Amino acid sequence: NDNRRQGARVGLVYDISQNQAFSIQTILNATQLYNNFYSDVSFQRATDFTIGTNTTEWTRKPVQVSTNAMYTIKTDTLGSVLKLIADYTSGTRKEVNVFAARSKDHTLDDDVINRTPNKTEILSIQADHTQMFPHALQFKAGLKYAGIRRDNDVRIDNIINGNIVPNLGASNHFIYDEQLAMAYATAEKTIK
Asked: What is the pTM of this model?
């Protein structure tokens, strides 16, 4: 086994003025996982017995990047504030599993490559406004958009006579998209 991980985080906060601020943060995580498996196998059949080996080389490489940015501005002296927030996350995973089966009975020999790359992206943008009024009255309103895209691809290939032959019956590829738009508004009054 040979497993490695890297990570980094960068952030910045900037006070533009007494009433305005901007912040941004990015996080990166990457991992490489290399695993090899070896198994001795016994086959007991109705009429005979044979032995063999199975080997697997399994490689996974997930990577995730996330960024968050926020801008705030105080719009009056009562404490009213406007916030603009954006988030983006991207995650990918490249995974390959190479399987080989060998037996004294060569009709049981098998070579398969299983690839399962996938990617997920999430974007959200929102605006929140709180308007303060005298006499403990406040109004809050906001808008938000979120978009999600996922691309999953499972590819199974057989190796026959040294040639890679796609196994379409065992493979599957799908893409998922979702778009959401949201809004809210509230009014609050504190009564003593």
From this structure: 0.81
